[in-house]
Amino acid sequence: MNARPSLTRYLVEQQRVHGLIPPELRLLIEVVARACKRIAISVNKGALGEVLGSAGSENVQGEVQKKLDIIANEVLIDANEWGGHLAAMASEEMEGIYVVPNRYPQGEYLLLFDPLDGSSNIDVNVSIGTIFSVLRRRNEDPTRVDPVCVSDFLQPGHQQVAAGYCIYGPQTVLVLTVGNGVAMFTLDREQGSWILTQENVRIPPDTKEFAINMSNMRHWDAPVRRYVDECLAGKEGPRGKDFNMRWIASMVADVHRILSRGGIFMYPWDKREPEKPGKLRLMYEANPMGWLVEQAGGAATNGRQRILDVVPTHLHERVSVILGSKNEVERVTAYHLEAD
Ligand code: AHG
Ligand code: MN
Ligand code: MN
Ligand code: MN
After folding, report:
1. Rg (CA), the chain
2. Which numbered atom of ligand 1 lies nearest the CA of 120?
């Protein structure tokens, strides 16, 4: 018998011992975790399953959809449609919201997800993942009978009640917070169960490792350029230490490294599409990752304010992202504020 606690036991403890999550939310997280196991099976098939390559369609972001983007999206919808805990879902791969068929009373939660993050890495066998965020349905007017609408989703990230990701890498690991720190669960493939392998994850406040797509350097704003130049100057420069650089182009993999050993991740606004605040999506990438990083003692800003305080105006809103080791994020943020 595996002495290590399972996901279920961890969630029951958060429910009963810490009073953090009601049974409905515990069950919703279990459904999402089961869906991630199902996605992992498709991911691991690779060329042996019909999962590689493009689906020949575009999503609302104007991105070419990979077959696995669509498969992962369908797995999450199928798993949650009858879970009974949800009122509606939103996804990177769907333009509008998916209101759960209200044959039964609808659940009180809203689930948002990036079903497959890091799609450009699918065909080259580099780690990818699923990111999810859970909000409570805002129902100030309980007499309201109309179904859930998009405006119910437009809540700032500090309203999240659960957030996490599943990374499909050499190990399949589910990383989760319900507001009581960050826990990591490794998939035991023989038993098909999630085993608690790390609790109270902590990000060191300082780091020597930065993550940014350097090919965009000529497009960056001055504060980002200043920060990265200082890192590149190494111990002879103003930082007095040498830095290392990593960029996996899967936010899930870069964030997993930062949760595991510290670092700073930046996908800032740049001049390529000046009308867009950044590339990454607020509701189902920056908010869940920002809460996880904060719960692990790190920080997450858009260069000027806490990501979790950004009030969304639309479902697929983009945002500039600077997250990770607290002292480094604060330094980059200070450079932005000084430049204003
Ligand atoms: P997605 O595959 O869900 O569209 O997200 C990809 C994102 C993120 O995972 C990653 O950090 C970033 O795009 C990489 O962008 P570049 O390819 O521009 O480096
Ligand atoms: Mn995409
Ligand atoms: Mn993504
Ligand atoms: Mn995606």
Report:
1. 20
2. 2
